[in-house]
């Protein structure tokens, strides 16, 4: 699934931002892709916290190989049935093992309101998700971008976004959150799309969860 607003967003960004005008054509027809499964998306986000795209993909591949079923969809019950020691063996730190198991328990117990998310605004969804152990604002924002495909998310806690802004707009000089937020205002209402292209400028591997 690809967002229906993507082409319009690219035209909008290219008109308003000189860096985006140069960056967007470099990646041709590449688009944000959603996997369509809420639990898998959140689990991938936890696995990918504060590590590179390449490292996250490597660990994820080993992780799903432990579980029954297709690699594109992880079932909460299957994760809970997997021994913590086995999860640790694929490269997951104990903290992330605990987070993944807690996430799975929330889904198994019906403590998340998956069917209501499409009607909720961004901040309301973030509030619900950060109540789950191990899911902070960054992970909730990744969910908004990659699962719900919300178009205007600016994840200021993302180290890749801050580094990419530094490289692309400030000649590598350190950038504050306030400066990044101000820059992001020019990207509205398509800040998610601009963020995706900033990520791609750092790592040619498509960013996905």
Keywords:
209 residues; Endonuclease III, domain 1; Endonuclease Iii, domain 2; mainly alpha
Structure characterization notes:
The protein has 209 residues and is mainly alpha-helical. 56% of the residues lie in helices and 0% in strands. It contains twelve helices and no strands. It has helices at 6-16, 18-23, 38-47, 53-65, 76-81, 84-89, 94-108, 122-129, 137-146, 159-169, 177-185, 191-202. Helix 3 packs across helix 9 (137-146) and helix 8 packs across helix 9 (137-146). The chain is globular and about 50 Å long. Residues 47-203 form the HhH-GPD domain. Belongs to the alkylbase DNA glycosidase AlkA family. Its EC number is 3.2.2.21.
**Outline, from the CA principal axes?**
globular
Query: How many domains make up the coordinates?
Result: 2
Percentage beta strand: under 5%
- For the record, what CATH class of the largest domain applies? Mainly Alpha
Could you give the distance between the termini? 13 Å
If classified by CATH, what would the architecture of the largest domain be?
Orthogonal Bundle
Radius of gyration: 17 Å
Would you count the extended β strands for me? 0
Helical residues, percent:
55-70%
CATH topology of the largest domain: Endonuclease III, domain 1
Main pleated-sheet profile: none
* Tally of individual helices: 12
Question: Can you tell me the residue ranges where pLDDT is under 50 for at least 5 consecutive residues?
Answer: none
- Helix and strand content put the structural class at mainly alpha
The CATH H-level homologous superfamily of the largest domain = Hypothetical protein, domain 2
In round numbers, the mean pLDDT is 91
Task: Name the helix and strand elements from N-terminus to C-terminus, one letter apiece.
Answer: HHHHHHHHHHHH
